[in-house]
Design a protein that fits this description.
By secondary structure, this protein is of the alpha/beta class. It has helices spanning about 1-5, 20-60, 110-120, 140-150, 175, 180-190, 205-220, 230-235, 240-260, 275-280, 280-290, 315-325; strands spanning about 5-10, 10-15, 100-105, 125, 165-170, 195-200, 270. It contains 12 helices and 7 strands. α9 packs across α12.
């Protein structure tokens, strides 16, 4: 046995290990290395997974909320930082946005007034949204529509860029505004919506405008073209039904009073069309109310009826007889003139 294990070559002793034992050691070593490698890989993957999760959580926690501007405490509920789903506000994400609604009655100058507001770089007033009946069918659809507008996800031609500073709409009193006044008031208070009331002082002028507009809508085309041009429409002189005149004026007056009573607890401003016509500085008050930078507001709309009131109706003498001695007698007198 000793002869098999060792021999001498030139005075050197060589010892050979058994072949089988050597192979077993190599296999065990390779297996050990493989097990260690799998173990270390699993540990590494687990650490990477934990790091990724931790990093994600940290990112959400590090995302700092937008800083509130230096304003009085009561006003903070009217400052918003909407996060639209349809686009990214990017660098304007922390630019504060004010919510508003223009509440008015038909033929009170609200369309003209809204074009003035929309001429401001940072204002988006989205028009008469609730003229579409399904949008005001119930309070749920009303809230869904308002949320979309105030989240900046209601896209119209009036929509500005991501740096919008005030967003709103025009809402007529007879479009579910008064019928749902309790729920709407609560929504305005919760969401921090400011109300801009716009009315006409002279309800007789408004009545004439309603009749002129009805004529414009029903006027037949001339040579295939609609004849609702300002000059042609201005020449139209309606005849007012004097039997219904006082009840109609009273109804319009009561609607305005009702609106002001229902929404008295909201943050609001009351404007009159005649005041804006006579003094454009009133528009500065509106911009201050919305907390937006003052700009010179412009509109491309033209006023149709510019002349004296008695020249705008067919039966002026009958109207005088009916209104003299009533609470509406003052409507007969000239309240403003536009050159």
């Amino acid at each position: 046995m000793a002869d098999d294990l060792c021999f001498f070559i030139k005075d050197m002793l060589i010892i050979r290990a058994p072949v089988k034992n050597y192979l077993v050691l190599r296999i065990c070593l390779v297996a050990f290395v493989m097990v260690c490698g799998v173990f270390m890989c699993s540990i590494g993957l687990k650490q990477i997974s934990n790091f990724t999760k931790a990093g994600y959580i940290d990112t959400k926690m590090v995302a700092r909320p937008c800083e509130m501007p230096n304003i009085e405490k009561w006003e903070r509920s009217y400052v918003h930082f909407p996060k639209p789903a349809t686009f990214n506000r990017a660098e304007c994400a922390c630019n504060p946005v004010r919510y508003f609604v223009i509440s008015s009655t038909q033929r009170s100058g609200s369309g003209w007034f809204e074009t003035l507001l929309n001429s401001h770089t940072n204002v988006s007033s989205n028009g008469e949204i609730f003229s579409v009946k399904p949008r005001r069918s119930n309070m749920s659809t009303i809230v869904d529509t308002l949320d979309k507008i105030y989240d900046l996800d209601w896209l119209t031609s009036a929509s500005k860029n991501e740096c919008t500073a005030a967003v709103g709409l025009k809402w007529m009193l007879n479009q579910g505004f008064l019928q749902n006044h309790e729920a709407i008031t609560e929504y305005f208070k919760t969401k921090g919506v400011s109300v801009i009331f716009l009315f006409r002082r002279n309800l007789l002028r408004r009545r004439i405008s309603i009749l002129a507009n009805a004529y414009d809508q029903s006027a037949k085309p001339l040579n295939g073209k609609h004849k609702s041009h300002a000059k042609i429409l201005a020449s139209y002189r309606p005849s007012i039904n004097t039997t219904l005149l006082i009840p109609e004026l009273k109804q319009a007056d009561n609607m305005v009073k009702q609106a002001l009573d229902y929404f008295n607890s909201t943050r609001h401003i009351i404007l009159y069309y005649e005041d804006i016509i006579k003094n454009r500085s009133v528009l500065n008050d509106v911009q201050d109310f919305l907390r937006i930078p003052r700009m010179k507001l412009k509109s491309r709309q033209v006023k149709i009826h510019k002349g004296p009131l008695h020249e705008q109706v067919e039966n002026w003498s009958d109207i005088q007889k009916v209104l003299n001695g009533t609470p509406y007698e003052s409507f007969l007198h000239e309240d403003y003139r536009v050159s």
